[in-house]
Specification:
The complex is a heterodimer. Chain A folds into two domains: 61-66 and 76-294, no CATH class; 299-379, no CATH class. Chain A is 69% helix and 4% strand. Chain A has helices at 2-6, 19-33, 35-51, 55-74, 77-81, 90-106, 111-139, 144-166, 220-236, 240-250, 252-257, 262-288, 300-310, 320-345, 348-378; strands spanning 189-191, 204-207, 216-219, 290-292. The longest helix of chain B has 18 residues, at 457-474. Classes of the chains: A mainly alpha, B alpha/beta.
Chain lengths: 379, 532
């Protein structure tokens, strides 16, 4: 390739590959490009078969998990396209969501109103967190991912300080059952039963499949919100701002020379991501109905990252369909692997181990591939 | 419009006390093609960076002098400002986004947009891109360059020639464009493409756009320019009309220096004592990005200092790197009649060759290690020196220290002692450590690349003297690569000029400036092509 470019006698025409080999190449290219989702598709099918779960149960579980997890996964797209890699900093967005719930639980709000107020509290918090994260990432260009992971750990410390020490102490809490018996610090779980299924239950469609007892339940509003988000992200990349995200992601320096305010764009990308993750966490928790105060947010980053990577995204490229496909495959594996492990080997833990192994393995492989590709490019 | 479009008066620029521009005066009329010629490092790019308000200028203390644009004073402080005023620049390294289409690149950050509901709430940035109009504009700009290409193609796979045109199309598309700066636009182009480009440059000039054309291809300058300015070492040596200029005259002006030819005189007598080449290179190809070598044949005689010269990007640096196995290479290398396998640093080292890299701080030194460790590490690894056997192999600290002390004394390395970290040393002393490291291998042939790059003037002399002394006293054959012709001419016995990855010719250091200039600009290669 490089030889070709430098060769001074080369005519100024684009090289064309012969059509047959082109087809074959396209086929191979397609396979190589989609090898990760394909492997996981096979794993899911095998796992689904050996788990012995009934189809409606499986479908119900998948729909539930898609509805509650996709939001967070999609929040990763903007930073990836803005060239900042996988935003592990979405953990801060999740924390913003949980702060929102602590507030609404404290005011004993319920139903859709409670949910809505939680979102209203979460968004400004997430904007502030995103802005700070973006500032930090601008100081560590090219190392956003590791910075994001460590930032997550650090923020977790502050989160714990606020919830364990400040709440009930400096910050008054009205509901005594939320606090530990000493009166200081929030309990391990926060009960948000009042907001359980706050938007899932707004409108549910039950589909009866002939031959099965259980119907398939579709939470229409949650899925509609997800669809709206997909359309919004799609639209975003058709706008001037989206073009600036993409230009910055391709090459910071060139974008800068073209007059794009790169640092601002990068901060904006992280704010987008953090806010979406915050709303995503609020949706996620309303489906669960309780909050694991010191645990719910911890793995949000790794799980979302693993999901989008399984969908075939890379550190530099991601699409909405990859995010959705990844969420589908990742969570199907979540559902089936413990049962499949139990049925195959007689131990549910084996399946569980396998899933955890895959989660981190996928992230590791994706990052290694990215480093390798970057090295190839440099040559 | 009357009066010049651009005037740069008495422009001076210093980088850390090192004057790189010394009072340049340039004036460009509307519709004028003004060529700026000069060797690498003559200050052409710095001058253009000043004109374009690049951050690198302002981060290093700014410049002195006055720039007027269309009659009003214009202290340009950022690229955006320059662009707003109507100055466009095509950079030497491409400023294109590989993953974008041609059209997206041409319209980058100047995309036409359409309003929508969201843009009325969230502002301008949420406007939708007007893709059909982007395509139309891009098409029009490409057509002005006589280029028939699908504007929806991705830039990533395009041949280099096309990329150059896309860059120019992008500047042309800016309706306010009044002055276009082309930084060595033909350096990567084939003859045909270059011709097309020159034609479009003329056409732009006829439309009233002023063009600043930076190049070192002299024949092009004569055919396209209305005025020619020659820079050398940051000085403006001449400004003339093409009618007064010839290729020879320009070449002489470009290279000309008073050369202190001090050392090679005493050598004439014994130069023919040995006719067997020590190192012979046949058909060497090296894939070093930016410095590719495409088939060099060269013979190095024992005991000589051979210079490798040429302009940047033509492959002179690739030769030594290829032979030493730093970049993928093919061809045939024989040392004393024995063939050496390529692509293996160890094989090259074992055959008695050593290399002082041009990348002193990257490849040459372990910056976080002591002077001593830097000097002995390579010999320890490749030749097993400074080791002793006590059940397991261990470093022999005593002999290592003795050797280091001797090197420090012999090469006069100014340091606090063998323990000092090399990061703390000055550039000249770092270079001496690099040379000491190579000498510890006791090489027959020493490759030295850009030994004086980034070293202040006094230390330069010391390094060169050191090389000569090594050659005379220890009989080490030296192959020295340098961008500074004067330096090569002051110590080398023969100088090989590399042009476009091939050997253009070998000159004696006494040859005239004009001849050097012509050879470096590839006059022979052009002539050969014309003849065939």
């Amino acid at each position: 390739m490089s030889d070709d470019i430098r060769n001074p006698d080369r005519k100024m025409t684009l090289q064309m590959v012969a059509p047959e080999s082109r087809h074959e190449q396209a086929y191979k290219y397609y396979l190589r490009k989609n090898v990760v989702p394909l492997v996981f598709l096979i794993l899911c099918i095998l796992g689904g078969y050996y788990s012995g779960l009934s189809l409606p149960f499986l479908i119900n579980e998948i729909i539930t998990r898609m509805a509650r997890n996709s939001f967070i996964v999609i929040s990763l797209i903007v930073p990836i396209l803005a060239g900042m890699g996988l935003n592990f900093g979405i953990v801060l967005g999740a924390m913003a969501g949980q702060f929102g719930y602590v507030a609404t639980a404290n005011f004993q709000m319920t139903g859709f109103t409670g949910f809505f107020v939680t979102v209203l509290i979460t968004v400004p918090l997430a904007i502030i967190f995103g802005w700070l994260t973006g500032k930090l990432f601008n100081q560590s260009k090219g190392k956003e991912m590791i910075t994001g992971i460590i930032l997550g750990f650090f923020a977790n410390g502050i989160y714990q300080l606020i919830l364990l020490y400040f709440m009930g102490n400096i910050i008054p809490i009205r509901v005594p059952t939320m606090l530990l018996s000493t009166g200081i610090g929030i309990r391990n779980t926060i009960d948000i039963k009042g907001m359980h299924y706050a938007i899932d239950n707004l409108w549910k469609i039950r589909l009866q499949i002939p031959g099965f007892i259980f119907p398939i339940i579709i939470p229409v509003v949650t899925l509609a919100a997800l669809a709206a988000l997909c359309i919004a992200v799609h639209f975003l990349f058709k706008t001037k701002l989206g073009q600036e995200f993409r230009a910055t992601g391709q090459n910071r320096q060139i974008a800068e020379v073209a007059g794009i305010k790169v640092d601002r764009i990068r901060i904006l990308a992280i704010i987008f991501s953090t806010v979406l993750a915050g709303i995503g966490q609020v949706i996620f928790l309303q489906n669960l109905g309780n909050i694991n105060t010191y645990g719910s947010h911890v793995q949000v980053g790794t799980f979302a990252v693993a999901a989008i990577l399984i969908g075939g995204a890379s550190v530099t490229k991601a699409t909405i369909s990859q995010a959705l496909l990844g969420t589908l495959l990742f969570h199907t594996l979540f559902i089936v692997s413990p049962l499949a492990g139990k049925n195959l080997i007689g131990d549910a833990m084996i399946g569980e181990y396998f899933r955890v192994f895959i989660t981190y393995g996928v992230i590791g492989v994706a990052l290694a591939l990215h480093a390798w590709q970057a090295k190839q490019k440099r040559r | 419009m009357t009066g010049p479009r651009l005037e740069m008066k008495n422009i001076t620029k210093e980088y850390f006390g090192n004057k790189v521009l010394k009072g340049i005066n340039i004036s460009v009329q509307p519709g004028e093609v003004h060529a700026i010629v000069g060797e690498n490092g003559a200050g052409k790019s710095t001058l253009m960076n000043i004109l374009f308000g690049m951050p690198v200028i302002h981060n290093t203390g700014g410049y002195k002098g006055k720039i007027t644009f269309n009659g009003s004073s214009a202290p340009i402080s950022s690229p955006e400002e320059a662009m707003e005023m109507g100055i466009g620049m095509v950079h030497q390294e491409f400023m294109l986004l590989p993953g974008f289409t041609i059209m997206e690149n041409i319209k980058l950050n100047r995309e036409p947009t359409l309003p929508n509901i969201w843009s009325s709430i969230f502002g301008e940035k949420m406007r939708t891109l007007d893709i059909p109009r982007m395509r139309r504009d891009a098409k029009a700009a490409l057509e002005r360059l006589d280029l028939n290409i699908d504007e929806m193609l991705q830039v990533a796979g395009l041949p280099v020639g096309f990329m150059q045109f896309v860059e120019i199309a992008r500047e042309l598309d800016k309706t306010s464009l009044q002055l276009l700066v082309l930084d060595e636009p033909t350096a990567v182009l084939t003859e045909n493409d270059a011709e097309t480009l020159l034609k479009s440059v003329r056409r732009m000039a006829n439309e009233g756009i002023s063009v600043l054309f930076i190049t070192h291809r002299l024949d092009e300058v004569l055919s396209v320019a209305d005025r020619i300015t020659v820079l050398r070492d940051g000085e403006q040596v001449a400004t003339m009309n093409p009618s007064e200029a010839t290729v020879e005259k320009l070449a002489e002006l470009m290279v000309g220096r008073k050369i202190k030819s001090i050392l090679h005189k005493d050598r004439e007598a014994d130069s023919d004592r040995n006719t067997q080449p020590l190192l012979s290179i046949k058909n060497l190809h090296v894939q070093m990005p930016g410095e590719e070598v495409n088939g060099v044949d060269l013979e190095v005689m024992p005991g000589e200092i051979l210079g490798l010269g040429g302009l940047a990007g033509h492959g002179k640096i690739g030769v030594a790197n290829g032979i030493m196995g730093f970049y993928p290479a093919s061809g045939e290398i024989t040392v004393k009649g024995k063939q050496i396998p390529l692509n293996s640093s160890i094989a090259s080292l074992n055959s008695g060759m050593a290399f002082v890299s041009e990348d002193r701080r990257g490849v040459g030194l372990l910056l976080e290690e002591s002077v001593e460790m830097n000097i002995i590490v390579q010999a320890m690894q490749s030749q097993g020196k400074f080791l002793k056997r006590r059940i397991i192999e261990m470093m022999d600290a005593k002999t290592a220290r003795k050797h280091t002390d001797r090197m420090i004394k012999d090469l006069d390395i100014r340091c606090t002692g063998p323990e000092q970290l090399t990061r703390r040393l000055s550039g000249g002393n770092q270079q001496k450590v690099c040379i000491a490291k190579a000498l510890t291998l006791e090489p027959n042939i020493l490759f030295v690349s850009e030994p004086t790059r980034g070293i202040d003037v006094g230390a330069k002399r010391l390094i060169l003297d050191l090389l000569v002394e090594l050659n005379r006293k220890s009989g080490v054959t030296i192959v020295m690569t340098s961008s500074e012709l004067s330096e090569l001419r002051s110590i080398c016995d023969r100088i090989a000029i590399i042009y476009k990855g091939r050997l253009e010719g070998i000159l004696s250091p006494d040859e005239s400036n004009a001849k050097y200039g012509l050879m470096m600009a590839g006059a022979l290669a052009h002539k050969r092509k014309a003849a065939s």
